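Section: Multi-chain targets

For targets with more than one molecule, the full set of components is provided together so that the structure can be written out for the assembly as a whole rather than chain by chain. Components appear in the order listed by the source. The example entry contains two components.
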Amino acid sequence: GNSVTQMEGPVTLSEEAFLTINCTYTATGYPSLFWYVQYPGEGLQLLLKATKADDKGSNKGFEATYRKETTSFHLEKGSVQVSDSAVYFCALSDHAGGTSYGKLTFGQGTILTVHP
Amino acid sequence: NAGVTQTPKFRVLKTGQSMTLLCAQDMNHEYMYWYRQDPGMGLRLIHYSVGEGTTAKGEVPDGYNVSRLKKQNFLLGLESAAPSQTSVYFCASSSAGLYGYTFGSGTRLTVV
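Its structure, encoded as tokens over all components, is:
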């Protein structure tokens, strides 16, 4: 079956530090990959996505590259801000057709805290 | 604002009580999902629906039932609540799955 493994947290950084959150996956098909962000007390929001190998997703200064050879989708940001403090989830979805119906499989989440 | 609306936002139940969580979306999405979020476990799929009148089991369906009588609504029911069902429940919808979900803001349920 499908699975997603994220680096364990929590991660604590100072403002303007470089961020990496590792994510690796196991999938039977050719999945799409996502990063979601959850701010305190809120639902999950799509941060970025990549739908095929070597695609790079980017948004709000965050980036992640779909690496099929290493089955990875690591999240990076060059300079974090206090407002980036949140929980980050890596997820995968097999193609929407067939029997998968776009179901997402999530990693366990990584808590990020950024201090001024 | 367009999106996914969940009601209620908070609820406390006694063991054995029943309740229904409502999810409504106004984006004309075909697919809808119910997840539960527990600390250290990410989100786990309870049930999902690929269209009006259809439902299917996800990863953790036991103790829950669902219905999708109208395309815009997806109901999650607990017939006899147990403390193990204390969790945060999220509803989500998607037009094709491939491009990600739109999530509701969640329902925090405590069963005592």
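Chain B has a mean pLDDT of 93.
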